[in-house]
Amino acid sequence: MSNMLTIAMPKGRIFDEAADLLRKAGYKLPPEFDESRKLILEVPAEKMRFILAKPMDVATYVEHGVADIGIAGKDVMLEEERDVYEVLDLKISECYLAVAGLPGGSGTGAVAPKVATKYPGVASSYFREQGEQVEIIKLNGSIELAPLIGLADRIVDIVSTGRTLKENGLVEFEKICSITSRLIVNPVSYRMKDEQIDELVSRLSAVVEGEAL
Ligand code: PRP
């Protein structure tokens, strides 16, 4: 293993907040970091290499050890059990998982209500706990479409500002759980690069704690 720390970053909306947090922790990330289309970015001065992954894939890179560390949403961690350590709640990208649908909608008429979601694991266990039998339909995005075009009676999805639900005439029925981004670590990396990782964790937790005050 090199002494470079490889960090899997989620592309998209979490990226800016995560980069901001690293900068506040004193890591000097070049300005082009934010605009680049490159998928691997090296920052030799900080002995860091970043890989830019789809949020759902971050934990896969960390579990397989090709990234030492990753920033992953709690939603992703709940959906698939991974052999990684979750070491710090970064308290960024706050949102929640909820059940939503059309207000008093007539639905699909199915015996077991159909639930569309990107999170089949979370949705199944939620409805099992509620004692409700449902049929889960897995989608990869634009979940709010499903009740609008008659594919599903309800959805289980992330709510952040609530705009997507509102602009599509959907209402929230139940909140399932709160979500924030977490710092995750590969167990072998934690043993091999403990000093570097401990330093990163303590610098980030100082920022997170400071911001919580
Ligand atoms: C997420 C989520 C909702 C939306 C919620 O989708 O699945 O659709 O954001 O945000 P809001 O409450 O602020 O409107 P995302 O934009 O990640 O894309 P996706 O549809 O591909 O999942």
TrEMBL record:
Q: What is its EC number?
A: 2.4.2.17
PROSITE patterns, alphabetically?
Answer: ATP_P_PHORIBOSYLTR
Tell me which Gene Ontology terms the entry assigns under biological process. Answer: L-histidine biosynthetic process
Report domain ATP phosphoribosyltransferase catalytic positions.
Answer: 54-205
- Pathway terms, separated by semicolons: Amino-acid biosynthesis; L-histidine biosynthesis; L-histidine from 5-phospho-alpha-D-ribose 1-diphosphate: step 1/9
Q: Which UniProt keywords apply?
A: Amino-acid biosynthesis, ATP-binding, Cytoplasm, Glycosyltransferase, Histidine biosynthesis, Nucleotide-binding, Transferase
Q: Which leading EC class covers this enzyme?
A: transferase
Q: Where in the cell is it found?
A: Cytoplasm
Q: Which Pfam families match?
A: HisG
Q: Which InterPro entries match?
A: ATP_PRibTrfase_cat, ATP_PRibTrfase_CS, ATP_PRibTrfase_HisG, ATP_PRibTrfase_HisG_short
The record's GO CC annotations read: cytoplasm
| A GO molecular function held by the record | ATP phosphoribosyltransferase activity
Q: Does the keyword rRNA processing apply?
A: no
Q: Which Gene3D superfamilies match?
A: Periplasmic binding protein-like II (3.40.190.10)
Instruction: Report the catalytic activity.
Output: 1-(5-phospho-beta-D-ribosyl)-ATP + diphosphate = 5-phospho-alpha-D-ribose 1-diphosphate + ATP
As for family, the record states: Belongs to the ATP phosphoribosyltransferase family. Short subfamily.
Q: What is known of its domains?
A: Lacks the C-terminal regulatory region which is replaced by HisZ.
Q: How does it assemble?
A: Heteromultimer composed of HisG and HisZ subunits.
Protein role: Catalyzes the condensation of ATP and 5-phosphoribose 1-diphosphate to form N'-(5'-phosphoribosyl)-ATP (PR-ATP). Has a crucial role in the pathway because the rate of histidine biosynthesis seems to be controlled primarily by regulation of HisG enzymatic activity.
Q: Which HAMAP family match?
A: HisG_Short
What protein name does the entry list?
ATP phosphoribosyltransferase
